[in-house]
TrEMBL record:
Coiled coil: none annotated. This is (S)-ureidoglycine aminohydrolase cupin domain-containing protein. CDD domains: cupin_TM1112-like (cd02227). It comes from the Eukaryota. Residues 30-101 form the (S)-ureidoglycine aminohydrolase cupin domain. It holds the Pfam family Cupin_3. The lineage of its organism: Eukaryota, Viridiplantae, Streptophyta, Embryophyta, Tracheophyta.
Amino acid sequence: MAAESSNPTSSHNLRITVERNPSESRLNELNIKCWPKWGCSPGKYQLKFDAEETCYLLRGKVKAYPKGSSEFVEFGAGDLVTIPKGLSCTWDVSVAVDKYYKFESN
């Protein structure tokens, strides 16, 4: 398999990654239960990520539309999601979200 080369200066390479149903040991390794919690009700939200965020959804359903793209990434309850620093996107929340989250400090 060829690896994709990425250019960090291009916003088109800012990709949301979704890890579906991570194992309990993976969640424990990340110490997720010590992370702060955040929630929102259904609706559309314009978000800009000034730092990389990793979050684990306890409940909810989201379609995230990166700015300037017609494609979306869908994720929901049980997913571990990484959102890259510098990404602007619209979250179309169809089921209220409750999540643990962590921002990378670097």
